[in-house]
Write a structure and sequence with these properties.
This protein is an alpha+beta fold. It is rod-shaped, with a radius of gyration of 43 Å. The protein has a five-stranded mixed beta sheet with strand order 1-2-3-5-4, covered by helices on one side. Strand 2 and strand 3 form a beta hairpin. About 65% of the residues lie in helices and about 10% in strands. The chain is built from ten helices and five strands.
């Protein structure tokens, strides 16, 4: 049932009860003035005003109060004419400040006990009647306070629910943003690494196509392998984006424990890559392993793109609390690496895991990338 239907039902019930009660009170109470058409008009106006009690509570309270006051001043007696006023008061009081609203019953008490007898010349109510009216008004104030507390509790609960929903939505958006950032970083790493190697190998193939066709064939085979791996990985990531779920990888994820596979494309591009592993190799969380592998690939991609054909050294150190990944080259920087997506992506990977990354020219020549990834914080599987 809608709120408008509820208001209509309340107004109807109050009107019927007030009318019937007024008739009964007139028969047994011996009012100073017998009931006439005005009495029933006042009851109807007071009950009908309740139709707008939600839209204009103060106006309805004023109308019902005025109707009750005229009813009493006309000498129709005390009785159910106050029922619409009670409903209007219980509707308005919880919505506005306490003390202005709760002062109204005190004013009403003074009007009924002293004001009406003074205006009509009737005797002042007895002490018992005055005490009864006072107790009834105090009960009315208590009920209004209960209604106010209930409304405030409902409002507070709804505010908490809105806040919880807002926090949940913000968390969902944050996770979605992080996932998009991870996918963008993966796309950059895959494409930049593969396309850089394809570019170098295609140049080699063009140079050797006539003089040393067998070497050109090796370069073309490397291009084929690099492009196939890139296409497979990009396809996997696009499937994940399209379906909104983690797609099953079509090729094994790169791992820092498989250095030969990580550096294979760089070696095929003509870079003399040596690898060294020190410390106590052990299983590491997937996120840390992937980040370390991508850092090696991106660093070797920069060697291919910026330092010319040279040698590079990849060193992996398993320390008690930290995994260190260091990539050095001895080449001449022909095109200084810009602080773009490559280095930025490696730095973001490290920071996401609580690690650090430095990438800068070496004092003796060449370039060095050094990543330090914490292990203890991630031993529980957080990656």
């Amino acid at each position: 049932m809608g709120s408008r239907a509820v208001d209509c039902a309340i107004a109807g019930v109050v009107g019927v009860v007030a009318t019937a009660g007024t008739l009964g009170a007139s028969r047994h109470g011996h009012p100073a003035h017998p009931l006439d058409a005005l009495a029933f008009v006042l009851v109807a106006v007071a009950a009908g005003a309740l139709l707008w009690r939600r839209a204009a509570p103060l106006t309805v309270l004023t109308v019902t109060g005025a109707a009750a006051l005229v009813f009493v001043l006309r000498g129709y007696g005390l009785g159910p004419i106050f029922l619409p006023l009670v409903v209007a008061f219980l509707t308005a009081a919880p919505r506005y400040r306490r003390w202005p609203m709760y002062a109204l019953p005190a004013v009403g008490y003074a009007v009924i006990v002293w004001g009406v007898p003074w205006a009509t010349g009737e005797p002042v109510p007895s002490t018992a009647t005055a005490v009864g009216i006072g107790a009834w008004l105090l009960t009315l104030i208590a009920v209004a306070e209960v209604v106010r507390q209930r409304r405030e509790a409902i409002r507070a609960r709804r505010a908490r629910e809105r806040d919880a929903a807002r926090v949940a939505e913000e968390e969902r958006l944050r996770r979605a943003s992080d996932e998009r950032l991870d996918i963008a970083r993966e796309l950059h790493d895959v494409l930049a690494h593969s396309l850089s190697l394809i570019n170098v190998q295609s140049g080699v193939a063009l140079e050797l196509l006539d003089s040393r066709p067998e070497q050109a064939g090796i370069a073309l085979a490397s291009i084929k392998d690099a492009s196939r791996d890139a296409l497979v990985q990009v396809h996997t990531m696009l499937q994940s984006l399209r379906h909104g779920t983690e797609a099953a990888p079509l090729t094994p994820a790169p791992s820092i424990t498989d250095l030969d596979r990580l550096v294979a494309h760089a070696r095929n591009a003509g870079i003399g890559v040596t690898t060294t592993v020190s410390g106590d190799p052990r299983a590491i969380p997937t996120g840390t392993d992937l980040a370390a592998a991508r850092i090696v690939q991106e660093s070797l991609t920069n060697v291919v793109r910026h330092s010319g054909r040279t040698t590079a050294r990849v060193t992996v150190r398993f320390l008690p609390e930290v995994l260190e990944v260091e990539v050095d080259d001895d080449g001449r920087i022909t095109e200084p690496p810009r602080p773009g997506a490559g280095i930025t992506g490696m730095t973001e990977r490290c920071r996401a895991l609580g690690g650090t990354l430095t990438a800068a020219p070496r004092p003796g020549g060449g370039f060095r990338v050094l990543a330090r990834l914490p292990l203890l914080r991630n031993e529980s599987g957080v990656s």
